[in-house]
Specification:
The chain has eight helices and eleven strands. With 268 residues, it is an alpha/beta fold. The strands form two sheets. Strands 1, 4, 5, 6, 7, 8, 9, 10 and 11 form a nine-stranded mixed sheet that branches. A two-stranded antiparallel ribbon has the order 2-3. A hairpin with a 5-residue loop joins β8 and β9. The N terminus is likely disordered.
Length: 268
């Protein structure tokens, strides 16, 4: 059984915080709600991610809001462990995380989970494994991966000849050979906060999307000869995207089964 992340600082005084990306609109959801406010198991999908972070030991959770951010703020009002920062332009995941820079200036030695708010299938035990691996390896950057049959839409995990981690390649930037890779990036990360924000300042938007990717931090970490840790900790069944109402309904059913919730009423 994996050892859980501690609910208090570890022996060298490090604690774990979290940054959750929740700024997207989700244009395919056929709704005017922010994507993370669509309900899974009778509550906004974002709340499942927040709860997973809390259970895994996160002391402070910084939520990056954007489109109709006031709705996201209101849904978490009164929580004393939640802070909000705003992403006014959608310039990529790296840019989104960088909006939390000021919140971590005074805590460069903290560990920090970085997660997407539209991933409600995240399990606390996956985050606990991620953090345990991160600390055991004395890593600057750690990611969890999954192996799935249909990798369409996901960043691919490229490994070197010895089987070690090389880099993450986004689908739009991948070669035909890389598109055949089935080990993917479900966007579950843990970083040391100081090195994270230093390397974010060195990322580039020279890619097919013209965006700043959080995934580029892993390549920069390797270039700096610092440790990147990788753990295959995500069950394939937990790697499901929510991009439209049909996928929303599918994940809702999984959550209801997992937590023994009453089935959702069907709308005739």
């Amino acid at each position: 059984m994996n050892q859980p992340a501690s609910q208090s600082p570890d022996s060298d005084g490090r604690v774990v915080d979290a940054v959750i990306l929740a700024a997207g609109k989700g244009t395919r959801m056929q709704s005017d709600l922010p994507k993370v406010m669509h309900e899974i198991g009778d509550r906004p999908m974002l709340h499942w991610v927040v709860d997973a972070c809390r259970t895994a030991g996160a002391k402070r959770i910084v939520v990056v809001v954007g489109f109709k951010g006031e709705l996201v703020r209101a849904s978490l009002a009164g929580a004393n462990d939640i802070e909000f920062v705003e992403q006014t332009e959608q310039l990529g995941t790296g840019h989104a995380v960088d909006q939390a820079r000021a919140a971590f200036v005074s805590t460069p030695n903290h560990d920090v989970f970085v997660l997407c708010g539209d991933g409600p299938l995240i399990r606390p035990e996956t985050l606990e494994t991620l953090l345990h691996t991160h600390r055991s390896a004395a890593a600057d950057a750690t990611l969890a991966t999954a192996v799935i049959d249909d990798a369409t839409g996901y960043g691919r995990i490229v490994r070197d000849a010895a089987g070690g981690f090389s880099r993450i390649v986004e689908q739009k930037d991948a070669t035909p050979e890389q598109l055949d890779i089935h080990e993917v990036n479900p966007s579950y990360y843990c970083f040391r906060s100081g090195p994270l924000f230093e390397r974010l300042s060195r990322t580039s938007n020279d890619n097919a999307n013209g965006e700043y990717y959080i995934t580029d931090v892993f390549g920069l970490t390797r270039e700096d000869h610092a440790t990147v840790a990788v753990v295959d900790a995500v069950p394939a069944g937990d790697v499901l995207s929510i991009n439209d109402p049909e996928q929303l309904a599918l994940v809702d059913g999984i959550i209801r089964t997992r937590h023994d919730l009453t089935p959702a009423e069907k709308i005739s």
